[in-house]
Design brief:
alpha/beta, 12 helices, elongated
Amino acid sequence: SGTPEQESSEPESAPETVELFGFEVDKAVFKAIFYGVTLFLAVVLSAGIVFQLDAEKKRKKGNRPNTPGTVDVVVVGTGMPKRGMGWYHLTQLLEMKTVNVRAIVEPFFLNPELCKNVPESFVKLTESLDEADVEMVKSVDDLRPFRRPTMCLIAGRTPDNPKFFAQCVAKGASVIYLEKPGAPSVAELEKMKNLADKAGTKVYIGYNKNVSKYVQKTVDLARKIPNSMVYFCHNNAYQKADLPECFARNSEGMMKNMAIHELALLVTFFDVRVESIDKFKVNTDKLFSEKLTVWKPGTTLPKPEYVSDFSRAAFKIITKDGSNVAVMADRCGGNFSFAVVKDESGKEVQKFEFPDQETQSKVDEQCKQDPEMMPYFFLQSDDYLELKTRVVNSMLAGTDAAGLATIDIGLNALKLAEFGTAQLNKALEAL
């Protein structure tokens, strides 16, 4: 046998290691760390999912969530109760059985940075909406993406509508119902149309006179009379003292805000386009056309601001193919509208008034019972409801809404408004 030095023996094996962040770490320790971290992440992830699911359950889903035969609706720009157009649309939508009012977006009253003292009437509105499980946010960006067929009804201030429109398209709106005129300018509305076309979003503009009975009767009669002439008159019930507030609030101007309804009728039913106009005749008599410059409310000396607009405007359009239509708009003319059909000689054939005596009596009584309500809500309530009903029904049926103004009609009406404004200014400045 050899000496102990000569006897061979197996050396002890070195522990297996792995490199972690530049350090040699025992493999068993690494496994323990790896499994520990994995378990920790799994627990955190599970807790996050549970929390997210719980939060999703608590999120408000609307006044008729998951009800068969309904579409989701989001109202953007509710405004003040009894004053704002968005608010009135909301009151009707809440009653429609085919609608789930999922949310409202109110960028002013729901934003504490902008509105320090929320009016009591709006507080009461939020309380009722909370009970109805309707979500309330200050921005469209705060909403979840739309998963169900969703209509966004945009009734904000005209200068804000392009931004709201883009946000609604980005959230996945199927349909957008846009209050007139849609945008402050033709260029902006064209951008909105291109955006909607790319996204496959249908767009309608809320020209309620397109479905008014008195307009339909006028159009039907005019088409039966060779070389007929049609005259549309649109009145508001402002007092002259109210015009500064009116001009400031409707900063897009009368032609884009008030007379735009009649311009949309000319585009829809008489095929009037800027490029088809042969003559644009302004009635420069002060009783028919007048432009005022007034002190802008909220501004004071030494830096007062002024705003100019038409208090009334009247003009006739003769197209290259011989169509003859005239429009009169008067901010202080009263709470009614009418249309007149004349024959080729200029003789009146028939006059169609809105409202008729029966409707006016009903509206007068409603105004007495609720003097805080804007009178035109009562007056045009049926038309507003008809427009929304047609859009919702078309969404449920997968068709286009019949008789409503598309964004193409809106574009041509807005082009007429810009052209007409320039013609009115030119004629009145020449006096």
